Amino acid sequence: MSAITRDEVAHLARLSRLALADAELDHYATQLDAIIGAVARVAEVATDDVPPSSHALPLTNVYRPDETRPSLTPQQALAAAPAVEDDRFRVPRILGEEA
What is the dihedral angle through the alpha carbons of 87, 90, 95, 97, rounded to the nearest 10 degrees? Predict the structure, then answer.
């Protein structure tokens, strides 16, 4: 595996419209080389017997039973509302369309 060169980093910087100092070119060349090496190691993993998946562990949804519970009456819920219309909260119109 060849190391990424300082000239390649300078070329990438020009394409990205980044102004990098000489010290930064050397610094980023080292870092990019390490990143490219890590990606290459991932590509080498034998995956013939590993099925494609979106998660490492199986996911299971946990549902609670749907039970009726005591709650506020409509009058209690609307008691502190600044504006009420037809047993509903009245809010300012945000769209210019007619209802």
Answer: 50
Whole-model pTM?
A: 0.45
38-97 tens-digit pLDDT: 988 887 886 778 777 888 888 888 898 999 999 999 999 999 999 999 989 999 888 876
Pair 40, 1: CB distance under 8 Å: yes
Find the distance separating the first CA and the last CA of the chain, reported in whole Å.
66
Q: Name beta bridge partners: 84.
A: 89
Tell the CATH topology of 6-43: Histone, subunit A (1.10.20)
Q: Determine the Cα–Cα distance for residues 89 and 25; give it in Å rounded to an integer.
A: 61
Domain boundaries, the chain: 6-43
